[in-house]
Amino acid sequence: VLWDENLETGTHFVSDNSMEMLGIPAERLAASTNAWQEFVHPDDFERIRESYGSARSSPTTVQWSADHRFRRMDGTYADVLDRALFVRDAAGNLKRVLCVMTDVSALRAAEVRLRLLETCLARLNDMVIVTELEATPDNASRIIFVNEAFTRRTGYTFEEVRGQSLAFLRGPRTDQGLYRRVGAKFRTGLVAEAEFVFYTKAG
């Protein structure tokens, strides 16, 4: 949703997609420059009011952004990202405010699900190793996550293995041909099942 407040002409515009995104008619949000405030979640209101007010009144501030919750017409709340551009004259006097509100509810929900998944994986007794799907130029997929069981059994912490390929776990008894074949399947998105001998930090 786009807000456009022109202080020189005294006009205030809100884009029509406010109805699609929030269920709120643009005319209601454009009724006054402060009409949006009634829709900000009570727990976020003071933080947003103070942050936005401070940025708006500062003659040197030209950009502002903040995350908060915004009430839809049906009473539910959307997680939104507000970004504002303050247009000022040479003396720092405010002439125009352009603000874009983006609904990031789906992104926030995905982040919550990812944190829950990481928590569940971390507590599994089986070792879990997650690598990037795309291989690097040396044909290796870099580690981006290991759970606590991995650390207990191998002796390596996540900080030690992050960004490395699984190759560092190989040793004399690792079937190198099988390792390469399985890796090739993974890189093409195929499912593979195999047993390897990997080596712990203690050897």
Short summary:
The chain is 33% helix and 23% strand. It is built from 7 helices and 7 strands, in the order ββαααβββαββααα.
Describe the structure.
With 203 residues, the chain is α+β, with helices and mostly antiparallel strands. Helices cover 33% and strands 23% of the residues. The protein has seven helices and seven strands, in the order ββαααβββαββααα. The protein has helices at residues 18-22, 26-29, 42-57, 105-122, 148-154, 158-161, 176-187, and strands at residues 2-6, 11-14, 63-71, 77-88, 94-103, 129-131, 143-146. It has a five-stranded antiparallel beta sheet with strand order 2-1-5-4-3, with helices on both faces. Strands 6-7 form a two-stranded antiparallel sheet. Strand 3 and strand 4 form a beta hairpin.
Output the number of helix runs. Answer: 7
Largest sheet properties = 5 strands, antiparallel
Identify low-pLDDT runs: none
Residues in helices, as a percent range: 25-40%
- Written as H for each helix and E for each strand, in order along the chain, the element string is EEHHHEEEHEEHHH
Distance between the termini: 58 Å
* Average pLDDT metric: 88
Radius of gyration: 26 Å
- DSSP, total strands: 7
Secondary structural class: alpha+beta
Major sheet: arrangement of strands: 2-1-5-4-3
Percentage of residues in strands:
15-25%
Shape descriptor reads: elongated
